[in-house]
Fold this protein.
Amino acid sequence: MFEVRDDEPKYAFLNNTESKEKNRYNLNIELTDGGSELRCKSLNINGDAAIGENPDRYKQHGFYFNADNCIGCHACESACSEKNDVPAHIAFRSVGFVEGGTYPDYQRINISMACNHCDDPVCLTGCPTRAYTKFAEYGAVLQDPDICFGCGYCTWVCPYNAPQLDPVKGEVSKCNMCVDRLEVNLKPACVAACLGNALDFGVIENIPENRIQAKAEIPGFPTTDITHPNIRFQQTRTTHREMTRTDDMPLKYHRDDEQGKFKPVVDEKQGRERHWNLRKLLTSHESAHVIFTLCTQATVGAFSMLMLGVWLNVGAITMLKNSGAFTPLIFMIVAVSTVGLFKLNMHLGKPHRFYRGFNNLRLSPVSREIAGVSMFYTGLLGYAVFSLFDNGLIQFLANSFAFVGVVSGAIGLYYMYKLYRIPARPFWNHWQTGSAFFGTMLSFGALLIAVVSVLSLPLDSLGMESLLSVLATITVVGLALEGIGHIAHARAMQSADNEGAASYYQQVTEYGKSYLLRNGLLALNLVIALAITLFGLSGLFGYLTGLGLVFSMLVMAAFGRSLFFVLVIPTTMPGAFFWKNKGFVEHARATGLADAPQHGVAYERHHSFKVDELIKTIKENSVKDMIDHVRWIFGK
């Protein structure tokens, strides 16, 4: 248990008062029934099997923040970091601010924020490794960094920046509500350290002493609809109609008098000039996801077209199946799929723990995507091996593997789409994500088949004209679907009343020239593919046209998918000029300021894994762990 000092001040202790039965979301504040056996279980804090004596142990607790009192001293951050031994480049609790007006009527509102231990924690349902648990004790949402393998999905889905992905260790950690202090009736360390009496803590919906409000929203705080956070606010001072952020996010908050809320609107900090920003675009943190999604969608599309064409006896595909190009094509699909999976796995903070991605199939779309894509790869690889033999039984096995690959590939792509439908990231939360993924599956699946076929067979060989016509038609459909989705998405984001509008603003300014290039190449590729459908390919001009289409589509895909990842602006909490500011983080890494830990920025060192280091790590640490993990799964 946490050791209580003899001179612990009175304000550091919890106030055990009578609480309400329901919270504002009409959920029970009491988290267990009276006879629950959970009441006899210990949290085993620091290996101590004792049970805390807090009378409110099984009630939902939460933070209370009084913006009227916060002076922005960051004592809460320091106390939290000291207690939890948090490195300088991350923080479980951080203080940001919004400001409005001009001198002499200038106003700043400081906002201190940590994990809100939500009623519906999307980090828990999204995490593929089951590193999160919502406890009946205090309603705390706790996370185990040792289970985490560093995919960072919880940092995507959380609207409040609560989970912190350590770029050095390659694992996530977060606020643990100081449950060890709660067990001995002490408030969390950040609350006890607050100089201005701005932070408080207790059973949710209980208004602290000498306070008059318990609101669920404040300027700069994202919508509560996503997770039902357990935090309450007081902010009685009159605010300006517009409150701006000092970080680089092109967002400000405008008061909607009808609803009495502040809504995010675009803040045109960067002007209207268009830029390329190629370095930021093509070498972003999510480049591995760009490669993985494109490779997987292309290979699922190509393999499904081939197998369905063979099973349905489509003439052009049957010709290809009986030609010398089919076997090289299958192994090319295996190679491209392998590259995608390798890039994704090496993107993890702990690549040698990849097998933990299957832990949360019941809830996590990431786990389901991993399972679907893994089964697709298994089916693809099995078909590639067994299709080399003419034996009837072995051919049956090959077709069985192919069936598994086609079905699981469709499942994997569906959950690949679902995992990006994140309410906390409005730019992604649109049906265009699905149209882009499905369109890429069609167009690049057909392109992959066409490239290997043209390299393996003469253009004037029997059936080649029909094959290229079919593949070009599929490419036209895929590109047209993607184009329609882009148009609808641009219109929706341009008029959105959320962070999606800010993403659109960055799309047409910070990356405006790259965006126009992607759109122009999409239109050009559509015209070329349509021309091939109508007129076919022949001679040297045909080869040059096909080569141009391949190059143009690759550039289009690289720009388009990179824009998809770099443009997304989450429903994030505001930062400060240096702290929690994406622009400053990029600047510090580019100029070397990140070498000084006092700037609170670190390089992404865990992505510098070498293959030999990974193999060594697996041999030394993971083989027994993997075996134990498989036993645990089947034991469950």
Observations:
- Residues 606-636 form one domain.
- The first strand starts at residue 61 and ends at 66.
- Confidence is low (pLDDT under 50) at residues 607-611.
